[in-house]
Amino acid sequence: MSPRRIPALAIVADVVAVVVFAAIGRMSHAESDDLLGLLGTAAPFLIGLAAMWATPLVRAHPVGARAALTVWAGTVVIGLLVRAGITWSLPPSFVAVTAVALAVLLLGWRALSAVVSVRARAHTVR
Prior knowledge:
The protein has 5 helices and no strands. With 126 residues, it is an all-alpha fold.
């Protein structure tokens, strides 16, 4: 795969992860399934994600461990702060669920990518 395609695929995977997080949250609370509602729920976290993608560390090595932790932490913190500013509410249970769910989604695809990459390299060496 072309090194130029990796950042593009990584940002798409991150956006999909955040939208999936928002969709699952909306479904678990029996909220409507309209597109505007989904985007409204995802927006604070997409803002956090965009802020993290603006950092040189994430753009330079988007699938690396440091970038993964940076994207996850920044998306969670900024997303929660933006959401709290909009809703004037930030229940501790929501903070915990957000942190764990986004860790699974944002770190998970990177871990899976690393495993596939290592296996592909090992298979090529044979």
